């Protein structure tokens, strides 16, 4: 592409969370690139109002910090998940892939959203883990990614047809950890805006719960400081229960093996 930064538009799925917010702010304030954000409302998820509030607050903070660059941030296009058209081929690929890997349900309807809107280059903020192994499905995804003009995207020829559900997306922060994003935001001077992002899926009285997947990610990826003491207690209790259940299962299997012998 021969577009300069003033003509270029990056299409980004923006949740108001840390990863997509980092990408958005870096594009607007550092790279000076126009961004078209998309947000999809999941009515059944308690956090969507908090996410929308975070999006509004982040916009305000960008405007305060750099009014000129803020004009590069286009109005957020908001959709309802319930209005996304069905697409049987995508759903079948998702079901096949999720039978082999743990995979969030959003990876079924996000490709359907992209297919419905004829998108082939929308950015999806999947980051790298720093303090624990990457989720197996995203480690596997890395085998099929190629670099094109500095952006990672799915290769055109795939040995696993189920991975086609990722063909609509670019993965600009696939190799960055949350702590690396924090370091960059500190260096570039927009860390204050980053802390207006939201991450909890099941907030309790306006605070992170400590038990949902994003809260556990925060605890395990060096961001425990973003959770309250009560949320941290819930996290440790939840981990204790998980470990206890795993031990009970292991004992039952051991007893079963002994009986069968």
UniProtKB/TrEMBL annotation:
InterPro entries: Rossmann-like_a/b/a_fold. It comes from the Bacteria. This is 7-cyano-7-deazaguanine synthase.
